[in-house]
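Tokenised fold entry reproduced for absentees:

. . .
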Amino acid sequence: MRREFRFVQVDVFTERVFGGNPLAVVFEAVGLGDSEMQAIAREVNCSETTFLLPPTRPDCAARVRIFTPAREVPFAGHPTIGTAWVLATEKMLPPGTTRFNLEEGIGPVEVTLEGDPARPSFLWMRHGEARLGPELTDRAGFARALGLAETDLLPGHPVCTGSTGNAFLYIPLKDRETVDRARLDVPALLAAQGEGPHLGVFVFAPEPSGSWAGRGAAEGEPSGSWAGRGAAEGEPSGYKVYSRMFAPHTSGVPEDPATGSASGPLGAYLVERGLVAPAATVDIVSEQGTRMGRPSFLRIRLGMRGGRISDIQVGGSVVAVIDGRLRIP
């Protein structure tokens, strides 16, 4: 007997349709097996597809399984933000709810809604502790893997892994133009990395201080971002970074328009490596997806105590795109 499942598709980390990172959310997924969920994710072919299930924990609003076109992942950013927005707008949360947990593979992930709880204008997801790995020393090899020269890497700042639940390889580059020139050669990457798990590759370049201060918001950029301004005492600081992420060898995603799970460790890297000045609150905007025609703006907010990072949140906006039905034999 043919089964039908309702799904919606939203764009995440954007304020308008056809920007950001697309996400498909499948409702009432009880009865779908692992192989069926994977087949649906391949068919939809978004960076990730989520499947809504009843929670197994009393402290969570829903259980969420997350699939890329190639595999299931325990945690991801734009699926968390997008799925939370869908739960709110579909009235699947108690009225007036502004903070709740989603049950993911790594455990509960906290989400906070801003604006109307029934149609939030902005959402924050809380990350766990960021862990940065030791420096990976084959800088020339990593540069070759990106089609670049070693001099294109940001001097004095290491290539390393980082994770708040989903690990990535972080490669700092010297400027925005270099980030746009990067082209991943997977065999060369694996040769440079050596032994260890295959990881998505996150390349980024901090924007020079003042490079965007005082200008109007870029097309699609959220109003109210903290563009390049200095922070008065007690105010959030404001910084910007330009980013891309490649994962054809890990998730079947040649390039991801917006990677929320990579943005928490990115914020930690920027602070711990001295690219961003520490403050009680550090605010960073990561622009991603622009090179592939899907501009995304991810806000990273770090809380600090005693010179150490005590809290990491990543946030963005969501817009609805598609409402449809999946027919499964």
Observations:
- The first strand starts at residue 3 and ends at 12.
